[in-house]
Give the backbone structure.
Amino acid sequence: MLRVNFILVLIVAVTAGLAATPALAEMPVEVLAAIKSEASGMPGFQGFSAERGEKFFKTKHNHNLSCSSCHTDNPAAQGKHSETDKVIKPLAPAANEERFTDMKKVAKWFKRNCNDVLDRECTPQEKGDVLTYLLTVHK
Amino acid sequence: MLINVNGFIRRYICVMLVSALASVMISEAYAHDGVEHEGQKYQASNPRWKEDCGACHIAYPPQMLPAESWRAIMAGLDKHFGSDASLDADAAKEITEFLEKNAGTKKHEVLAKPLLRITEGRWFKSEHREVAARDWKNPKVKSPANCGACHTTADRGDFSEDNVKIPR
């Protein structure tokens, strides 16, 4: 009887543990593949470049802002919102496994941040270059 | 001697009357600002509100503004105090409903346009009247919108005075 109870408790504990694990809908490479299929439709597309992505990430565009204004020059480090000082968790997937695992969230933040920094949405080429760069960043 | 005592009592009564009047005036000011005061702890929560509104600043408690203010804010998220904070239609609808349902309900200031900044309301100014100018200017505070700089438990909706620590 004691043994049955123990097994029951174990089953409940394991199920609860599984339920508590955040569901990662996509992997960053899958998100990159989705951006790539979008970019492939653009004339002259020749693949993504981490080097170009890094330059784009660190260059000041409009309003004296760059991606690194908030995310810092090291995407594996914690950032800080340039206006409110709120802590921003690391952007590089190597340092934060939640990043680039939800296509909807990726689209939402690229739209907002590109509008703030460039006054326009980013092209699939730019997004793919940046994500390619972020995937090369180690902890 | 008797005259002196009488004078003292008169002065005492005067002081009492003035402070009673002042507290009535202060509570009147509070009552007209559309804000609920339940021990400065705000309980209402919604996961999408917490995540989306709390991404760039703390998720400000819905009780801090009246419903028409929240509607105006939610209708202009693409230009939200200088930032694009746009949401998809589903999230915007759910968050707007949550904010409206829990918005400040007391009679508030009648303004030509809805108040968009909590920090510009009479209630906020009155609550913070003792905060020195040098504290507002402290880089660790940065902006009056940065509740968490002094209200150490603001992210949990707890604004009680016991948990206030002004950075030096």
